[in-house]
């Protein structure tokens, strides 16, 4: 398994009607171990695109290929062994323990009538350690905070040992320390060769650790490529409809950060005037 991803002309709508398409003609390629940051305003289709990539939704057109294999040709078990998916939210009404939930990440590798093996339990324990939640192992999952639950879902996906990991806003419920911890885990997983696709509301995340960024808006990928080349102040303004300054922090950090500016909205005409670098 190499974790190579090829998305070609992907098109999806919940009703199947042309006028209701969430997106169409989405194409991009990722090499093994690349981190792709998916940005876009609320409702632009980021979660929907991730669900199409995980085959939880069937694209109307186009293909998702992993390591050259079209997901259409693979069964659910094989897809689950290749792709880990951490959804934005998931409700669990039954009080499984955290340990049980994390071991469920091994489901595609455990036989229908078998119990988890020593390896399955060790993998689950290692994931909990890595995410820093082993102290929650015996806690019922319906008695967790939103952030703790998010960490459990990430640990569950790691236990799967996937080649590709899809993360839908993985830091949305986390305190600053845990946000950075998860971004560091993303970084180290990518270095181990896992390909990561991460939806986010923070363009800073693209500067922090993404090899590629894509901006989904108006049913299409309006920008795609190296964050340092693609993410300009104009592109961010078109994306979010507000003024955002990009500032470079030196002092040993040497990284760009995004600073929203209050009450400085440009008119649409001002934005339209002149061509904008970075837009597809
Ligand atoms: N199950 C569904 N049935 C019908 N429409 C849906 C469904 N889920 C989402 N949508 C619609 O599809 C569009 C894209 O939603 P999606 O959740 O993918 O956006 P998003 O970019 O992830 O949004 P956010 O940033 O707010 O999480 C929205 O218009 C949404 O209302």
Describe it for me?
Its EC number is 3.6.3.34. It holds the Pfam family ABC_tran. Residues 5-243 form the ABC transporter domain. GO terms for molecular function: ATP binding; ATP hydrolysis activity. InterPro entries: AAA+_ATPase, ABC_transporter-like_ATP-bd, ABC_transporter-like_CS, Metal_Ion_Import_ABC, P-loop_NTPase. The protein is of the alpha/beta class. It has a single domain, classed as 3-Layer(aba) Sandwich (Rossmann fold), CATH 3.40.50.300. 32% of the residues lie in helices and 26% in strands. The protein contains ten helices and twelve strands. The protein has a six-stranded mixed β-sheet with strand order 6-7-8-3-9-10, with helices on both faces. Strands 2-1-4-5 form a four-stranded antiparallel β-sheet, with helices on one face. Strands 11-12 form a two-stranded antiparallel ribbon. A hairpin with a 5-residue loop joins strand 11 and strand 12. Helix 4 packs across helix 5 (146-159). The longest helix is centred in the middle third of the chain and has 16 residues, at 176-191. The chain is globular. It binds adenosine-5'-triphosphate.
Shape: globular
User: Which molecules are bound in this entry?
Assistant: adenosine-5'-triphosphate
CATH topology: Rossmann fold
Distance between the termini: 31 Å
Uncertain residue segments: none
Class by alpha and beta content = alpha/beta
Average pLDDT taken over every residue: 89
Order of helices and strands: EEEHEEHEHHHEHEHEEHHEEH
Number of domains: 1
How are strands sequenced across the largest beta sheet? 6-7-8-3-9-10
- Proportion of strand residues: 25-35%
Helix content: 25-40%
Q: Could you describe the largest sheet, including whether it forms a barrel? A: 6 strands, mixed
* Number of DSSP helical runs: 10
CATH homologous superfamily designation: P-loop containing nucleotide triphosphate hydrolases
What quaternary form is this?
A: single chain
CATH class: Alpha Beta
The strand count comes to 12
Instruction: Evaluate the radius of gyration.
Output: 19 Å
Q: Any guess at the CATH architecture?
A: 3-Layer(aba) Sandwich
Keywords: ATP-binding, Hydrolase, Nucleotide-binding, Transport
GO molecular function: ATP binding; ATP hydrolysis activity
InterPro entries: AAA+_ATPase (IPR003593), ABC_transporter-like_ATP-bd (IPR003439), ABC_transporter-like_CS (IPR017871), Metal_Ion_Import_ABC (IPR050153), P-loop_NTPase (IPR027417)
EC number: 3.6.3.34
């Amino acid at each position: 398994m190499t974790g190579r991803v090829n998305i070609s002309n992907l098109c999806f709508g919940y009703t199947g009607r042309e006028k209701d398409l969430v997106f169409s003609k989405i194409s991009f390629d990722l090499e093994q171990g690349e981190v792709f940051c998916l940005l876009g305003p609320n409702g632009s289709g980021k979660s929907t695109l991730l669900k199409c990539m995980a085959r939880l939704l069937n694209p109307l057109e186009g293909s998702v290929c992993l390591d050259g294999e079209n997901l259409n040709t693979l069964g659910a078990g094989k897809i689950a062994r290749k792709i880990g998916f951490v959804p934005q939210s998931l409700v669990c009404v039954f009080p499984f323990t955290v340990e049980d939930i994390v071991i469920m990440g091994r489901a595609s590798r455990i036989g229908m009538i078998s119990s988890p093996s020593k390896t399955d339990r060790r993998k689950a324990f290692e994931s909990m350690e890595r995410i820093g939640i082993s102290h929650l192992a015996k806690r019922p999952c319906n008695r967790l905070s939103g952030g703790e639950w998010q960490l459990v879902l990430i640990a569950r996906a790691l236990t799967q040992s996937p080649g590709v990991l899809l993360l839908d806003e993985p830091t949305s419920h986390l305190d600053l320390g845990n946000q950075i911890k998860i971004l560091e885990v993303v970084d180290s997983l990518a270095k181990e060769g896992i390909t990561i696709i991460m939806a986010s509301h923070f363009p800073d995340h693209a500067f922090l650790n993404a090899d590629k960024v894509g901006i989904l808006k108006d049913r299409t990928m309006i920008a795609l490529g190296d964050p340092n080349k693609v993410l300009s102040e104009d592109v961010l303004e078109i994306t979010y409809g507000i003024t955002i300054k990009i500032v470079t922090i030196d002092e040993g950090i040497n990284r760009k950060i995004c600073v929203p500016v209050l009450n400085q909205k440009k008119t649409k005409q001002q934005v339209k005037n002149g061509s904008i670098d970075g837009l597809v």
